[in-house]
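Quick entry, no commentary yet.
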Amino acid sequence: MHNSATDYEICDTTIGALLRRTRDSEITNSRFDRNNGHAIATGHKSFPAGEFRNVKITNNQITNSGGGSGINLSRATYTTVTGNQIINKTHQSDGYAGIRIPNNGANNIVNNNVIENYPRRIFVLTGATGNNVYGNTVKNASLQGLLVQSDGNTFTDNEFIQTNSSWATWMSPVEP
């Protein structure tokens, strides 16, 4: 079954879109603003990886998050996340990421997204494998622009920009 959520505006919620068992669907051209949890959250600890699969999350605007990730791909497989603008006007104070792939998220494509003012921009956790992350622009990370805790993923052509000098230490090389 194909489901499509297009041109929605979801504001002032705890979690913008909570998607547990979703397959062969799309979330496109929607706006998530002022959420205090994940703007788009997938999967659930009671369901195995792959219950959320083959979903396209494209061309969405996620702005002014008060906490949580912009897009949290928990247990997501074969999902494409592309062309999203995940931008906070002010820096978020927790440790979440603009795009986060935890809990055995596998074989996802994350490309051509802009992520700004999250502590971590892209965070791939232990157990996430086969993910292809490329062509993203990440700006102003206070912790890490990219944090990877798992083998078997591909990262290419991502651009990291730090315009806030008070957070620039994460980009500095370690001196011997």
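second:
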Amino acid sequence: MAFNKELPEWKAAGIEPPLTKRNEGWKPGEKPPADWLNWTQNRTYEALKELQEKAVPVDSPTFTGPLTAPRLISTVATGTAPLTVDSETQVDHLNADMVNGFRLNQGVKTTDSPTFSGLKTDKLILPVRSSDPVSPEIGETWFRSDL
């Protein structure tokens, strides 16, 4: 997001008013010294300039260092990856609900023929359920490698 308004540039640094004046503010009919007003205008300009220079665009933020946040919430539409990682390094303690479209806490349910390459086990037990939604039969399918 680009800023649309031009900065109200104010280069005269002025003199900082005393803390008592900054706490009380201006009184009716009071005419503050020009240097105090210059200080306020300059500080406002410098703060706005810093915001414009350091603000991260909302529509396409880019971070060059670590990002720490309590939660990451994606509102991207279905069909668009909510997260892209350019690394093959495994992330320890990553809590993922699905892998390649399959939930890890249930049997594989697909019309495709999933393949499991490099699987080494004495026996493999897969929970199965019939396709009848009214009274599904629950059971197990055993695969043995020692036959």
